[in-house]
Amino acid sequence: MPTDRFRSLLDRRGPFATAYFDDSHDTADADAQLDVRWRDLTAQLHAQGAPGDVTDAMRAAIDARRPAVGRSGRCLIATSDGVVLDERVDRVPENSVTRYSELPYLVPLIEHGGRTPSHVIVTVDHEGADVEVRTAAGTRTHTVDGGGHPVHKASGAETAGYGDPQQRTDEAARKNVRAVVDDVTALVDELSPAAVFVNGEVRSRKDFTSAAPQRVADLVVEVNAGARHSVDEAALDADVTAWLRDAARAEVRRAAEQLAAELGRASGLATEGLHGVCAALREGAVETLIVGDTGGATVVFGDAVTTVAPDPSVLSELGVSPDHIGPADEVLPLAAVATDAVIVGADDELAPRDGVAAVLRYAPATLQR
Asked: Which of 10, 41, 64, 212 shows its CA 20 to 30 Å from the CA of 149?
């Protein structure tokens, strides 16, 4: 998971209240269920020391946002200044999570996918396309009309004296597809989406991909959810959701495979355990941080969260005062955010020592610490 959207949290002052919970809206009494759930979460946060104005701000954020459609999870993080992060997550939690602590708690977002990456859905035919753009800011749609006509051959009487009707319809269709390609290419250059899902009848999909520049064609995922004016919206959403979920899982698998390969060859480009990961974070060498169950371990850090170590003696040797102590599953992800590292959650097949591991940009000299 890229971490650029969390960077604003580095400048926030805690304590932070985190609530991660089922935000589904798929039953007639969904609102009542949410009220009961939130009262329980509020009681948990108050018991941990969260003040009423913080939980009130979180409740206001829930009320202000349109309910999810169907099953959904949600993560809210707030301080005395109000809600600082509000995201729906890919997987609905079996059990709610609350925490009130000095640093923001990002692990629920890391483990469960967090925000769906930006993507574009194009339902194309030879007259144009309907384009849907989904980003963190919301969803917007527009229609592309290439202006090429006709795209269907007219009768013989209508075409007499006007040249080859097949050639004219082919040229019109190519013009319209080109207009769609130009529109989508501009979106790709603007948004860098994870994928461009192309729906429509087979020939239109193929013509779009053939006309697209390579940087767009590389992102194309063809889906078959009906022709442009008879789209099966449920099937389309299901195909898109399944692909995005598989892509997120593949990211974890790639990280696990890379970690195993680098550890196996002792290249110095991977490490596991608190000592190695803390050393790599201090050096800014972490490319991908892998976080699992840290077993309640704590770490220490100085004025900056990146001056982190598993115990005070390590920082003392470096001439840094160990001013702060915090849970490893809060401090290490935030240090990764500060150094522009990617973060992925460990799964059942990946259980690194101490619950943390890292794939590195380079082999730091201090890794033995």
From this structure: 212
